[in-house]
Amino acid sequence: TNGDVTLNDTMPAAWQGLDSGTYGSNFNITAAFSGGAANPIDGDLYIHGGGHGDSANPGMWRYRFAGTTLPTGWELLAIPASAGICSPNTDPTATSPVFPVSSHTYNGLGFDPDTAKVLRFGGGQWNTGAMPSKNWAFDTTTDTWAETQNTPYAANNPVVAIINDIGRKVLIISHSGDGWFYRIDTNTAGANVSEAQQAFDSVSSYDPTRNRAYLWAPSELWQVDIDWINETVTMAEVTPTGSTGFLSGSTGAMFYDHDSDRHWFFPLVEGSTSMTAVYDMTPGLVITSHTTSGSNTGLDTDAWGGSYNKICPMLQWRAVGFITGIDDAAYVVKLPIL
Taking the model in full, what pTM does it have? Predict the structure, then answer.
């Protein structure tokens, strides 16, 4: 990278050294149950994590994988001036500027390319894990937060958000209670979807041509067919063939590659220091393994690497960017041409 600037290096003095105690640990910005939002056109990955009993830090960071010759690296976009602003279980809306309380976001972050906003749905908030009803949008052009439509119906703890840019809608899948559709342009709730429930550790990839997503949960793979117009979904567990052994473990990250018409899987395990293979799946649900080569020891033992889709696909380079811990460099996986 452009050296050597880590996420921790961008931390302001008021937040430095908070590695245990009252405000949890900054290490859990990346290591806890929180995801990322990718802008694949510009090669940007947005990170906003912490939450539950892990970290009160509600900062928003961006890792810029694109650059003239090398990645630009980590940038801090927004953070409260004081750690004391992060009261447990409270979105501090009376402060200026406004910041949402730190939360486990799971796979509930997404990037809307039309408005250049990072959308955040639900999660497990600092420091009790309570499920907030408030949802938020971070404007990457002004580096400011604003509240969006509250979670309606009986939704509880959203864990996956699937954005459909053409229809300007989001499908939010919950761990318990109902899932629901969110209408981006009108900032309103659409239909509730009682069957849209899945495990905490789920990650997703979405094929906009078929209006079909896959949800990878521990030892499970689900197919989700979405009718964006009528706001309905059909979910069914599927059984792929081929190199499927990795599906029986914990999840990691995944995305849909429109160039090769494949869904890519990146198995990542807490505490692992390497990723020995990546996997692609055809529309016919055949999975093939691809052994990695070169330096693949980028996973830090204090991070979950690319888990919860903390990845940035960059298909113009047939590559995927990953972040590691707050005190380590990012790295890139080059995909094979199929």
Answer: 0.93
